[in-house]
Each structure stands twice: as structure tokens, then as C-alpha cells.
Amino acid sequence: MTAPKLELSLALSENENTRPLLDGVVGAEGIRLIPTAVHPSEMFWRQLKFGEFDVSEMSMSSLLIATARGPTPWVALPVFTSRAFFHTWSLVRADAGIAKPADLRGKRVGVPEYQQTAAIWSRGILQHEFGVHAREIEWFMERNPDKSHGGSTGFTPPQGVRLQYIPPSTDIGEMLVRGELDATLLYFGRRNLVDRSRTDHTADARIRPLFDNEKEGWRYFATTGLYPINHTVVVRRTLLEKHPWIALNLYSAFAAARAEVLRAGHEMLRPYYVTGRIEPETKQELANDPMAYGIKASRKVLETIAQYVLEQGLTARRVKIEELFAPNTMDL
């Protein structure tokens, strides 16, 4: 007689890395997954505030911040479903006098949430690559405490940082159009329960990217070897304490899902900056799969985001990587 499978709720963003899990094409041995597709902003808020799902993607920064404060309800798997060069997502007003990163000093800059991973990567890169510190910028945050990730992790503006909450009557998109903001580190215009902005700036000549995205992406990778991680995957701690075997079974399922997409040759899994102009030594590094799962392949990236979270005053101590991940996954 076949033993019944362990039934787990699963929340994932609509990401090509994990599409086979959402669609049921790939499963986990001994586990019946009940998947829900959720926008990341909403998913992390629901997990941090209500703990709704057994397994889900999770903001790397929010997990670090929560762990620094004490034991969390979550244990991570070294599955990294989202990576990007987030600083290249910065948008600026064409009339704000911002031609280069140094020109952000003294400017009014929006961010959906100050502690979100993409914003931390962007500020860390501004500081370490371009010499621009967060204290030199006036910040405007769209998410209010009741809908923010920081509302569940004890966020307060770091010492020396000037931060205002954007009133509920407006948002980053509208403030950019009206000239009440000079720039934003990133912009979410897709509807979800957490982010308010809806304005489409793609055809607005008043708003432009700060960087030549493709050129800056491969420059940063060639210089640092870092392909920034945004999301990991977490499992409810009480489940892993009772069933330690599910960590590796779930990891294998995520790895199989990504392998399935790679076999299909999906372009979303290739770093967007890979072009014929890339330097030969960087092309060789890319052959080693910069989006690989596992601790060993990504330790440098994980250590960097842990350091940035500390440097930016969002934790009182540096979190060790070993505190985050299931013990039986540390050698992967």
C-alpha cells in the first residue's frame, strides 16, 4: 500500500524558474504540493505577517533582518528564484540634473520599501561602486507600515537616514510625473495588494533609466563576479523539525523545475547582459551558470547581501549564512 504524501501549501511568483512547479509538471518526492501564484510584494507581506504558506519564496533581506532579531518561523533552502542587477532599474526625471550616480546626492528618491532586497542591493552598489551613501539622499517610501515587510520585522529608518512615508493618497509613479520625486531606485507598476503605483512610464519622455542597463549589468558582473540574489525559498520551521527529509526533497524539486526550463531553452534564465560584446573572461564565468542553486555557488553573493544589510543599519549584527539554511543543505 502506497504511503500518503505530505500535503504542503506552496506560494511562488510567476517566475520561469519555478513555472513547472506551479503547473504541476514537476513534483517533490513524498510531497503533494498545493501551489498558489502570488506577486512577490504580496507574498512576502502575507508570509511575514500571517505565515499563510508552508513553503514559499521569501525576500532575502527580510529573512536576514528577521533572523538577526531572533528565531524565525522559517528555514531557508538554497534555492534562488530571482536575480537581477537591481541598480540598473533606477529611473530618473530627465529634468532633475541626474546624469550619473553621483548626481543622486541631495535628490528626492523613491523606493517601494526601504528594506526590500532590491533596494539594499542598489544602495550597496551605489556606495561601493560609485561612492554615494544612503545618508546623502532624501528617501520617500511608498509602503506604509501596515502593508510593508518592515511592519513585521521591526523596521525603523536607520540613524542618519532621511526617510518620509508617501501619503496613501499618492504613490511613486504620480510623484515622479509631478516632479515631486527626482528618481526612484525601482518601480513596481503591476497591481498587487501591497504596491500602489499604477502609472506607465515606458513612453514618458520625462522619465528615463539612470544606466545603460545592458552595459552596466555586464560591467558590474565583470568587476565583482556578483549576480545579486533577491529571493530564496523558505519552509515552515515546525515542519522541518518534524520531517527533516523534506528539505532535500523540496530542493531536488526546485532544481528539477529549473532543469526542465533550461532544457526548453527559455531565455528568461539567461542573464540579460550576455551579448556578443561581453569580455571573454566574463563569458567563461557565465558558462559556470551564474544562476545556480546551492550554497557553494552563491556564498559570495549571500555574504555580500548580509554585509550590506548590516552596513545600511538594518541589523545590529551580521547574520551568518549557517543561521538561515537547513543544515542538510549546507554542503550543496
Question: Would you mind describing this structure in some detail?
Answer:
The chain has 2 domains: 182 residues, 3-Layer(aba) Sandwich (D-Maltodextrin-Binding Protein, domain 2), CATH 3.40.190.10; 138 residues, 3-Layer(aba) Sandwich (D-Maltodextrin-Binding Protein, domain 2), CATH 3.40.190.10. By secondary structure, it is α/β, with parallel strands linked by helices. It contains 11 helices and 11 strands. 45% of the residues are buried.
Brief summary:
The protein is an alpha/beta fold and 332 residues long. The chain has eleven helices and eleven strands. It is globular and about 65 Å long.
Major sheet, described briefly? 6 strands, mixed
| DSSP summary, beta strand count | 11
Strand order of the largest sheet: 8-7-6-9-5-10
CATH architecture of the largest domain: 3-Layer(aba) Sandwich
CATH topology of the largest domain: D-Maltodextrin-Binding Protein, domain 2
Q: How much of the sequence is in beta strands?
A: 15-25%
Q: Write down the overall geometry.
A: globular
**CATH homologous superfamily caption of the largest domain:** Periplasmic binding protein-like II
- CATH C-level name of the largest domain: Alpha Beta
Q: How many separate structural domains?
A: 2
Radius of gyration: 20 Å
Regarding quaternary structure, how should these chains be classified? single chain
- Approximately how much helix is present in the residues? 25-40%
Low-confidence stretches: 271-278
Supply the key terms.
332 residues; alpha/beta; 2 domains; 6-stranded mixed beta sheet; 5-stranded mixed beta sheet; 11 helices; 11 strands
